[in-house]
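Sorry, can you check?
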Amino acid sequence: HVQLVESGGGSVEAGGSLSLSCAASGSIGCMGWFRQAPGKEREGVASINTRGSTNYTDSVKGRFTISKDNAKNTLYLEMNNLKPEDTAMYYCAAAAGREIPAAQILSAKAYDAWGQGTQVTVS
């Protein structure tokens, strides 16, 4: 049974930085960060597979970095040069004990487990 607990987030001015963490337990495969703004669909932000390969949605490339500490079973998202359009609830997600095909890597439907979410607000 996979459990995910996020921390971090908060409020920051445009151009600032924030970091998110996600502590995971259970059999973890591919992991990712998603976000959902009010009235919008959940959007894949970044993903990392068990080999450390990463993917990003175009709007965050060069600004966000996803990483994972396998010893601590913790996923991170470093967010720099934040913009107001980055404002959303951010969710950690994991596929239980498996990888996700590349074509689905940023699709919410491909993930089995979700954290509770943490708010990021950029003004």
In short: The first strand starts at residue 3 and ends at 8. DSSP finds no helices and eleven strands in the chain.
